[in-house]
């Protein structure tokens, strides 16, 4: 009996020892696994935290660069506005300069315009010839009306007029800036053809007045008229 009981105790001890070892081993493995899992989580946290810091730094840098870009854009816009204003000023000056060149007759010009012909009228031997020939006041009337109507350049028999031109009647010829020209007198004018023709053809205007003085008056529209610049001391 005693031997049987002793054998039972030995077996029970061995089983208990085995179970304890198994439990201890399982706990040991579980602890290692938890420790490894904890270490991995810590590393991931550190890496994620570092990435967040880097992202924040990059975002701050981008904001600084954007602000710097906006400041530079404002500076560029300021310069563009100043250049635009200068360009407008210089463009205006260039236009004014060109107008003065035209007025002074210093540049060759071409464009649409009209040609007016003034010819002496036919007269009888018994009548005064002066009542039938073109005088300087006839030419003056035409030239003045053309300038008023917007003509940009005018010539008489090819002689370009300028700011100080003068016209003098000397018998059957008219002198323009010292150069004599016989009739017929061809007055060429650059400008809007319809406006110029309408200005001369106004009822009771220049054309009617000249025709009433027995002068042959004719107008012709031209698609292009070329006027050379004024030469000599008068320029």
UniProtKB/TrEMBL annotation:
**Which residue spans adopt a coiled-coil conformation according to this UniProt entry?**
48-96
Enumerate the UniProt keywords alphabetically.
Coiled coil, RNA-binding
Domain of life assignment: Bacteria
| Family under the similarity heading | Belongs to the UPF0749 family.
Q: What is this protein called?
A: Uncharacterized protein YlxW (UPF0749 family)
Q: Which organism is it from?
A: Lederbergia wuyishanensis
């Amino acid at each position: 009996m005693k031997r049987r009981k002793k054998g039972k105790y030995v077996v029970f001890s061995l089983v208990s020892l085995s179970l304890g070892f198994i439990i201890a081993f399982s706990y040991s493995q579980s602890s290692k696994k938890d420790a490894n899992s904890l270490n991995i989580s810590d590393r991931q946290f550190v890496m994620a935290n570092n990435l967040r810091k880097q992202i924040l730094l990059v975002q701050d840098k981008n904001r600084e660069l954007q602000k710097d870009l906006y400041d530079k854009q404002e500076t560029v816009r300021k310069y563009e506005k100043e250049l635009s204003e200068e360009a407008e000023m210089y463009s205006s000056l260039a236009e004014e300069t060109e107008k003065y060149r035209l007025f002074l007759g210093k540049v060759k010009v071409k464009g649409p315009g009209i040609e007016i012909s003034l010819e002496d009228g036919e007269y009888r031997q018994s009548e005064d010839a002066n009542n039938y020939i073109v005088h300087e006041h006839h030419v003056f009337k035409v030239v003045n009306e053309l300038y008023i109507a917007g003509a940009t350049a005018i010539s008489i028999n090819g002689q370009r007029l300028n700011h100080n031109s003068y016209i003098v009647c000397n018998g059957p010829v008219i002198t323009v800036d010292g150069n004599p020209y016989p009739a017929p007198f061809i007055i060429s004018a650059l400008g809007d053809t319809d406006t110029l023709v309408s200005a001369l053809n106004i009822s009771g205007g220049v054309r009617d007045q000249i025709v009433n003085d027995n002068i042959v008056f004719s107008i012709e529209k031209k698609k292009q008229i070329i006027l050379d610049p004024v030469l000599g001391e008068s320029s």
